[in-house]
Amino acid sequence: MKLRAALFDLDGTLLDTLEDIGRCANDTLRERGFPTHPVGDYRRFVGEGVAALFQHALPAEAGKDRDVVAGCAATFGRIYDAGWDVASKPYPGVLEMLDALRARKIPMGVLSNKPHDFALKCVGKFFPGRSFDVVFGMRDGVPRKPDPAGAVEAASRMGVAAAETLYLGDTSVDMRTATAAGMFAVGAAWGFRSVEELEAHGAKAIVQRPSEILAMVGGGA
Q1: Among 80, 87, 141, 143, which residue's beta carbon has the most beta carbons within 10 A?
Q2: Using CA atoms, how far apart are residues 46 and 30, in angstroms rounded to an integer?
Q3: Residues 190, 107: Cα–Cα separation, whole Å
Q4: Can you tell me the distance from the alpha carbon of 184 to that of 117, in angstroms, rounded to the nearest whole number?
Q5: Has residue 220 got a pLDDT over 60?
């Protein structure tokens, strides 16, 4: 079946947000009296939502305490709201790829485990004029990735079947989401995780640069 639409993860796929997330998470840990991490370590912590980030980033026992995790998530929301766009930027080639897809009238969407409000802010700032048919972050009542519910809903909003949709992401969570939704899972080699992780969790293709997906959408895969 030909691929007729493209759905994208956000952090680590369209946007390099690691520095802002890591800095704000460290400020959160510091404010709440916990040890911090090198920013590069956050490559392993992101992808499953803010609560999961702190389950990984906190010391082991604290990371198991729901109240501590919830408190950190709330503090992070305040700090990140003031610093989410300091260093974040689209990866090289992403804007051109999106423009090329839009010129071909390919439906496009974003599906992220980032809180919904922040997902909307990021798309609004970094992709102005590059309209997506749907943008979903984490929303109340919708299970987070890798549950396929959000991906299936996004395909419906784009007016295509899940099986006709390419899903580009950079973590095992994304590959599992795409597979569970019946989408064509593509791993972004430039993102936060390794190619080995992507392949081990269902990637049907790996791309080294954004432009490589242009040959996959609209003309089959």
Answers
A1: 80
A2: 18
A3: 23
A4: 27
A5: no
Let me know if 194 is exposed, middle or buried by CB neighbors in 10 A (0-12, 13-18, 19+): middle
Average pLDDT over residues 136-151: 97
Pairing of strands 5-8, 165-169: parallel
Which 3 state secondary structure label does DSSP give 3? strand
Q: Which two tokens stand for residue 208?
A: 């080294």
Q: Which residue has the tokens 């909307």?
A: 120
Identify whether the C-beta of residue 136 lies closer than 8 Å to the C-beta of residue 109. Answer: yes
The Cα–Cα gap between 134 and 114 comes to 15
* 58 vs 66: CA distance, rounded Å: 12
The two tokens of residue 75 are 């503090």
Please tell me whether the peptide bond between 146 and the residue prior to it is cis, using omega within 30 degrees of 0.
Answer: yes
180/127 Cα distance (integer angstroms): 28
pTM: 0.94
